[in-house]
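REQUEST FORM: STRUCTURE PREDICTION
Request ID: SP-0412
Submitted by: Lab K.M.
Chain count: 1
Length (residues): 168
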Amino acid sequence: MDLEEDKSYLPMIIGLVFVGALVIGGGVLLTKQNNETATTTDTTTNTTAQTQETTTQEPPTNTQQEVEIVYTDGTYSSTGSYLSPAGSEEVLVTVTLENDVITDVNVEPQATNPTSVFMQNNFADGIKDVIVGKNIDDVEYPGNINGSSLTGKGFIDAIELIKADALV
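STATUS: Completed
RESULT:
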Protein backbone atom coordinates (compact mmCIF):
# COMPACT_ATOMS: atom_id res chain seq x y z
CA MET A 1 0.00 0.00 0.00
CA ASP A 2 2.84 2.39 0.67
CA LEU A 3 4.07 1.81 -2.89
CA GLU A 4 0.74 2.95 -4.34
CA GLU A 5 0.86 6.18 -2.32
CA ASP A 6 4.39 6.87 -3.56
CA LYS A 7 3.25 6.33 -7.18
CA SER A 8 0.43 8.87 -6.76
CA TYR A 9 3.05 11.60 -6.24
CA LEU A 10 4.93 10.64 -9.39
CA PRO A 11 2.77 12.67 -11.86
CA MET A 12 3.01 15.72 -9.56
CA ILE A 13 6.81 15.46 -9.36
CA ILE A 14 7.07 15.09 -13.14
CA GLY A 15 4.82 18.13 -13.58
CA LEU A 16 6.95 20.24 -11.22
CA VAL A 17 10.15 19.25 -13.04
CA PHE A 18 8.52 20.17 -16.36
CA VAL A 19 7.35 23.58 -15.07
CA GLY A 20 10.79 24.26 -13.59
CA ALA A 21 12.42 23.48 -16.93
CA LEU A 22 10.04 25.87 -18.69
CA VAL A 23 10.81 28.66 -16.23
CA ILE A 24 14.57 28.22 -16.55
CA GLY A 25 14.37 27.94 -20.35
CA GLY A 26 12.19 31.05 -20.55
CA GLY A 27 14.66 33.01 -18.43
CA VAL A 28 17.55 32.02 -20.69
CA LEU A 29 15.53 32.99 -23.77
CA LEU A 30 14.60 36.39 -22.29
CA THR A 31 18.22 37.05 -21.33
CA LYS A 32 19.34 36.21 -24.87
CA GLN A 33 16.68 38.51 -26.36
CA ASN A 34 17.69 41.36 -24.03
CA ASN A 35 21.34 40.97 -25.05
CA GLU A 36 20.38 41.06 -28.74
CA THR A 37 18.27 44.18 -28.12
CA ALA A 38 21.18 45.87 -26.36
CA THR A 39 23.46 45.07 -29.29
CA THR A 40 20.89 46.40 -31.74
CA THR A 41 20.48 49.57 -29.69
CA ASP A 42 24.23 50.16 -29.61
CA THR A 43 24.45 49.73 -33.38
CA THR A 44 21.57 52.13 -33.92
CA THR A 45 23.15 54.71 -31.63
CA ASN A 46 26.46 54.54 -33.48
CA THR A 47 24.74 54.87 -36.84
CA THR A 48 22.81 57.90 -35.59
CA ALA A 49 25.98 59.53 -34.27
CA GLN A 50 27.72 59.01 -37.62
CA THR A 51 24.74 60.43 -39.48
CA GLN A 52 24.70 63.52 -37.27
CA GLU A 53 28.40 64.14 -37.86
CA THR A 54 27.93 63.87 -41.60
CA THR A 55 24.96 66.21 -41.50
CA THR A 56 26.82 68.91 -39.56
CA GLN A 57 29.72 68.88 -42.03
CA GLU A 58 27.52 69.72 -45.03
CA PRO A 59 26.79 73.39 -45.77
CA PRO A 60 23.19 74.49 -45.18
CA THR A 61 21.11 74.32 -48.35
CA ASN A 62 18.06 76.19 -47.05
CA THR A 63 18.27 79.85 -48.05
CA GLN A 64 14.73 80.83 -47.08
CA GLN A 65 14.41 83.61 -44.54
CA GLU A 66 12.20 83.15 -41.51
CA VAL A 67 9.14 85.37 -41.44
CA GLU A 68 8.57 87.05 -38.10
CA ILE A 69 4.95 87.19 -36.99
CA VAL A 70 4.14 90.53 -35.42
CA TYR A 71 1.08 91.30 -33.37
CA THR A 72 -0.40 94.75 -32.87
CA ASP A 73 0.21 96.14 -29.39
CA GLY A 74 -2.93 96.52 -27.31
CA THR A 75 -5.39 94.80 -25.02
CA TYR A 76 -7.46 91.93 -26.39
CA SER A 77 -10.25 89.84 -24.90
CA SER A 78 -11.74 86.57 -25.98
CA THR A 79 -13.84 83.79 -24.50
CA GLY A 80 -12.47 80.28 -24.55
CA SER A 81 -14.47 77.13 -23.96
CA TYR A 82 -13.70 73.69 -22.59
CA LEU A 83 -15.48 70.59 -21.38
CA SER A 84 -15.64 69.91 -17.64
CA PRO A 85 -17.36 67.09 -15.73
CA ALA A 86 -20.26 69.53 -15.25
CA GLY A 87 -20.51 70.13 -19.01
CA SER A 88 -19.32 72.87 -21.35
CA GLU A 89 -17.80 75.90 -19.59
CA GLU A 90 -16.36 79.22 -20.74
CA VAL A 91 -13.67 81.54 -19.44
CA LEU A 92 -13.02 85.17 -20.45
CA VAL A 93 -9.35 85.99 -21.05
CA THR A 94 -7.95 89.50 -21.45
CA VAL A 95 -4.33 89.93 -22.55
CA THR A 96 -2.20 93.05 -23.03
CA LEU A 97 0.51 92.75 -25.69
CA GLU A 98 3.62 94.88 -26.20
CA ASN A 99 6.07 93.79 -28.93
CA ASP A 100 4.41 90.35 -29.03
CA VAL A 101 5.03 89.87 -25.29
CA ILE A 102 2.20 89.45 -22.78
CA THR A 103 2.53 92.24 -20.22
CA ASP A 104 -0.73 91.57 -18.41
CA VAL A 105 -3.37 88.86 -18.28
CA ASN A 106 -6.75 88.68 -16.60
CA VAL A 107 -9.04 85.66 -16.41
CA GLU A 108 -12.70 86.13 -15.50
CA PRO A 109 -14.75 83.04 -14.65
CA GLN A 110 -17.81 82.56 -16.86
CA ALA A 111 -18.72 79.09 -15.60
CA THR A 112 -22.23 78.18 -14.52
CA ASN A 113 -21.35 75.27 -12.23
CA PRO A 114 -20.21 76.31 -8.71
CA THR A 115 -17.27 73.88 -8.72
CA SER A 116 -16.18 75.16 -12.14
CA VAL A 117 -16.39 78.76 -10.90
CA PHE A 118 -14.20 77.80 -7.93
CA MET A 119 -11.64 76.13 -10.20
CA GLN A 120 -11.63 79.05 -12.64
CA ASN A 121 -10.97 81.46 -9.75
CA ASN A 122 -8.03 79.27 -8.64
CA PHE A 123 -6.69 79.32 -12.19
CA ALA A 124 -7.11 83.10 -12.44
CA ASP A 125 -5.15 83.58 -9.21
CA GLY A 126 -2.10 81.73 -10.54
CA ILE A 127 -1.92 82.24 -14.30
CA LYS A 128 -0.21 85.65 -14.19
CA ASP A 129 2.95 84.17 -12.70
CA VAL A 130 3.13 81.64 -15.54
CA ILE A 131 2.20 83.78 -18.57
CA VAL A 132 3.30 87.40 -18.08
CA GLY A 133 6.61 88.08 -19.82
CA LYS A 134 6.20 85.37 -22.47
CA ASN A 135 5.94 85.90 -26.20
CA ILE A 136 2.34 85.09 -27.12
CA ASP A 137 3.57 82.52 -29.66
CA ASP A 138 5.36 80.65 -26.86
CA VAL A 139 2.23 80.24 -24.72
CA GLU A 140 1.18 76.60 -24.45
CA TYR A 141 -1.33 74.68 -22.37
CA PRO A 142 -0.28 75.68 -18.85
CA GLY A 143 -1.29 72.43 -17.18
CA ASN A 144 -2.44 72.43 -13.58
CA ILE A 145 -2.62 75.94 -12.11
CA ASN A 146 -3.63 76.02 -8.43
CA GLY A 147 -5.45 72.70 -8.78
CA SER A 148 -7.26 73.64 -11.97
CA SER A 149 -6.23 71.65 -15.02
CA LEU A 150 -9.28 71.96 -17.27
CA THR A 151 -9.55 75.78 -17.23
CA GLY A 152 -6.21 75.87 -19.07
CA LYS A 153 -7.88 74.31 -22.10
CA GLY A 154 -10.35 77.19 -22.28
CA PHE A 155 -7.50 79.63 -21.65
CA ILE A 156 -5.53 78.30 -24.64
CA ASP A 157 -8.68 78.41 -26.77
CA ALA A 158 -9.04 82.11 -25.91
CA ILE A 159 -5.32 82.80 -26.53
CA GLU A 160 -5.59 81.33 -30.05
CA LEU A 161 -8.56 83.61 -30.79
CA ILE A 162 -6.65 86.62 -29.40
CA LYS A 163 -3.64 85.80 -31.59
CA ALA A 164 -5.90 85.80 -34.65
CA ASP A 165 -7.38 89.17 -33.63
CA ALA A 166 -4.00 90.77 -32.89
CA LEU A 167 -2.21 89.82 -36.12
CA VAL A 168 -0.97 92.85 -38.04
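NOTES: Confidence is low (pLDDT under 50) at residues 28-56.
Reviewed by: T.R.
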